[in-house]
């Protein structure tokens, strides 16, 4: 199981708005009352990226679970999720949001109308970059951004901005180590999204010490999702096949992963695929030909009932009949859901550490000093110089499911890789995986 975090499709030029929050009396903290705290997120709840909707739904299930068990320090959590349709509402594409809706306009609603304490788990690289200035201007923390861009690790410019998942750079460095160990000397190809998702991932491969010939380092146009064109990926796959690339790394979102694999299958081309965690979730790719591909996991397998977080997550989702009305004890749990549970747990842990008096500055301070216990394979630890979030994961192989599309991935061994964004950040490994306990107050 891997996560669908996502690099958002390229958004048009969006300027930061002038609408500011005026919530609360002088000296009060917006979104915080004696018995509640209001947070929000802009996420794709419709349109071409609707498959990401379960991420925030699972986070909401955690908040409901916590509320049902007394809240945090006496406060219930209200989580407002607004549909920004991936910032693509103006293109239609199945969006139910109005054509004038943008990620910025929805953040303006959250800040100036709903008076949120913070945004928590908003999704998409370009989408979230488009509101960095607006949220900073209004003093609103931008927490646990659902994207692996290294843009979230910029504490000097954005001290209240925090990522969550392992960065694309770090992921690329880990893939490079895997390639050097198992596929040394084989011809390497790359297809990446033509924004910082693909660029960061390719840089990680290079920083990790593998070489992709320029002729085999290819991109697909993010606008193809809008036009429905497949010409980019058809040409890219044909080029790599002609170059006899034996190993191909994909930095692609799920619809493009599916398209690339389908084109390769039609051409009779079957290299070893190594797919970014962003685009490898089997239930989203939904193509039998993904079986045998490798990816990076920063969460345990959803079938690993020996990890206490897996049955606990299932219990939390089963309890939420509003967000998960059809989820049953036999339903397949996905990476989307575990990811949402992950950042929600970290939010409530930081909120609990903050104590009864909650301020934005105090919460950020708690984030920087807290030792988190959560479902991720690698520990979440922020610092004054690191706002990225998770630092690594395990290499996992997509399991075959007969003639059907795969539904799960399994770690290939017990090696856990950790590293940072920069080329100078060392790559460390361990085989001693320690499962974080579930805090008693969460059970």
What does this structure look like?
This protein has 443 residues and is α/β, with parallel strands linked by helices. The protein folds into two domains: 36-165 and 304-369, Response regulator (Rossmann fold); 168-300 and 392-442, Response regulator (Rossmann fold), CATH 3.40.50. It has 13 helices and 14 strands. The strands form three sheets. Strands 6, 7, 8, 9, 10, 11, 12, 13 and 14 form a nine-stranded mixed β-sheet that branches. A three-stranded parallel β-sheet has the order 3-4-5. Helix 1 crosses helix 12, helix 8 (231-242) packs across helix 9 and helix 12 packs across helix 13 (360-369). Residues 1-26 have low confidence and may be disordered.
Query: Whole-number radius of gyration?
Result: 21 Å
Query: How do the SSEs run, as a string of H and E?
Result: EHEHEHHEEHEHEHHEHEHEHHHEEEE
Strand content: 5-15%
Q: How much is the average pLDDT?
A: 90
CATH fold title of the largest domain = Rossmann fold
Provide the domain count. 2
Helix coverage percent: 25-40%
Gross CATH architecture of the largest domain? 3-Layer(aba) Sandwich
- Low-confidence blocks of residues: 1-26
> Structural class of the helices, strands and pairings?
alpha/beta
Largest sheet: 9 strands, mixed
Q: Can you count the helices?
A: 13
Query: Between the first and last Cα atoms, what is the distance in angstroms?
Result: 23 Å
Q: Quick one: overall form?
A: globular
Any idea of the CATH class of the largest domain?
Alpha Beta
Q: How many strands?
A: 14
- Specify the CATH homologous superfamily of the largest domain: Response regulator
């Amino acid at each position: 199981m891997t996560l669908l975090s996502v690099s958002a499709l390229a958004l048009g030029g969006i300027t930061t708005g002038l609408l500011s929050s005026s919530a609360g009396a002088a000296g009060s903290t917006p979104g915080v009352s004696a018995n509640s705290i209001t947070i929000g997120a802009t996420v794709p709840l419709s349109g071409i990226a609707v498959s990401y909707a379960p991420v925030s739904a699972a986070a909401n299930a955690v908040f409901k679970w916590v509320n049902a068990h007394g809240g945090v320090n006496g406060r219930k959590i209200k989580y407002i999720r607004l549909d920004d349709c991936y910032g693509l509402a103006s293109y239609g594409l199945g969006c139910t949001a109005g054509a004038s809706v943008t990620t910025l306009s929805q953040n303006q609603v959250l800040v100036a109308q709903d008076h949120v304490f913070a945004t928590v788990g908003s999704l998409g690289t370009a989408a979230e970059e488009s509101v960095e200035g607006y949220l900073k201007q209004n003093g609103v923390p931008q927490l646990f951004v659902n994207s692996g861009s290294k843009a979230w690790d910029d504490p000097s410019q954005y001290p209240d901005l925090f990522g969550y998942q392992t960065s694309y750079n770090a992921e690329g460095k880990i893939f490079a180590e895997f390639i050097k160990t198992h596929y040394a000397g084989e011809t390497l190809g790359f297809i990446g999204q033509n924004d910082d998702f693909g660029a960061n991932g390719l840089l990680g491969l290079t920083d990790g010490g593998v070489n992709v010939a320029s002729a085999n380092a290819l991109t697909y146009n993010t606008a193809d999702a809008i036009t429905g064109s497949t010409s980019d990926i058809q040409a890219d796959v044909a080029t790599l096949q002609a170059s006899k690339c034996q190993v191909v790394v994909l930095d692609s979102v799920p619809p493009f992963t599916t398209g690339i694999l389908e084109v390769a299958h039609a051409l009779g081309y079957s290299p070893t695929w190594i797919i970014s965690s962003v685009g490898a979730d089997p239930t989203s790719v939904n193509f039998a030909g993904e079986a045998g591909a490798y990816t990076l996991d920063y969460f345990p397998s959803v079938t690993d009932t020996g990890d206490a977080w897996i049955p606990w997550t299932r219990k939390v989702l089963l309890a939420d009949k509003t967000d998960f009305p059809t989820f049953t004890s036999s339903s397949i749990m996905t990476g989307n859901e575990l990811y949402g549970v992950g950042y929600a747990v970290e939010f409530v842990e930081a909120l609990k550490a903050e104590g009864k008096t909650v301020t934005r500055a105090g919460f950020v301070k708690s984030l920087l000093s807290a030792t988190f216990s959560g479902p991720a394979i690698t520990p979440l630890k922020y610092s004054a110089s690191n706002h990225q979030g998770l630092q690594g994961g395990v290499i996992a192989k997509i399991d075959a499911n007969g003639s059907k599309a795969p539904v799960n991935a399994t770690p290939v061994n017990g090696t856990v890789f950790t590293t940072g964004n920069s080329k100078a950040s060392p790559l460390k490994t361990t085989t001693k995986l320690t499962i974080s306990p579930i805090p008693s107050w969460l059970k």
